[in-house]
Amino acid sequence: MIRSMSSADCNQVAMIEAQEFGTILDQHRLLALLKSPVFFGFVDDLKGTNAVFDCPTILISYLLANIIVDEAEILSIAVLADYQNLGRGNELLKHFNAFVAAKNVKTVFLEVAADNKAALTLYRSQGFSECSRRLAYYKRVDSRCDAIKMKLHVKEAFP
Predict the structure, then answer these.
(1) What are the phi and psi torsion angles at 141 (to 5°)?
(2) Where are the domains of the chain?
(3) Cα 123 to the center of its chain, rounded Å
(4) CA distance 105 to 115
(5) pLDDT in tens, 78-126
(6) Which DSSP letter does residue 155 get?
(7) β-pairing, 71-79 with 107-113?
(8) Rounded to an integer, what distance in angstroms lies between the CA atom of residue 95 and that of residue 98?
(9) Contact at 8 Å (CB) between 111 and 147?
(10) DSSP designation for 149
């Protein structure tokens, strides 16, 4: 079930972020983001018992974004490895796109590693297109990878 992110989700979101990207977006930083009036986060959860976090739901994906006036930037979007390629990321992105359309956002931006073929396919299927690149931006074990900046022109919910 896709829903707005709450402070209770921060620990699980941080865990997914670390697992999928190896980055340090910890609970403290996420709680600070939640307090920002321009921040919007969404999570996709499964009902059940999460033994790791001793809570009633298991988060399988999230999307974090900032919206300022008529522009949105997706800061991070991730799906747990066991749930990838099942349409969960697609549904989360569709949910967000409907949300921003209702807020009369005109443009959504995001950044993705050029070697993340699955994410690029997802974003293109939702209408995103490349608008710029940061050459050799991401470090890899034995190389570097470009960052692709993508843009989506949102269809107005209330023309």
Answers:
(1) -55, -50
(2) 2-153
(3) 11
(4) 29
(5) 999 899 999 999 999 999 999 999 999 999 999 999 999 999 999 999 9
(6) P
(7) parallel
(8) 5
(9) yes
(10) E
* CA 8 to the chain's CA centroid: 18
| Alpha carbon distances (Å) from 141 to 42, 98, 119, 138 | 31, 37, 20, 10
Amino acid symbol at 113: A
What is the dotted CATH code of the domain comprising 2-153?
A: 3.40.630.30
Q: Give the span between the Cα atoms of 75 and 78, in whole angstroms.
A: 10
Q: Which residues is 95 bridged to in the sheet?
A: none
Helix (H) or strand (E) holding 135, with range, is strand 129-139
Q: Which residues pair with 42 in a beta bridge?
A: 4, 63
Contacts of 35 (CB under 8 A, 6+ apart): none
Task: Please count the other Cβ atoms lying within 10 Å of the Cβ belonging to residue 116.
Answer: 14
Which pTM was predicted? 0.89
Query: Reduced to 3 DSSP states, what percent helix, strand and coil does the chain have, rounded to the nearest 5?
Result: 30, 40, 25
The dihedral through the CA atoms of 2, 89, 41, 14 has a sign that is: positive
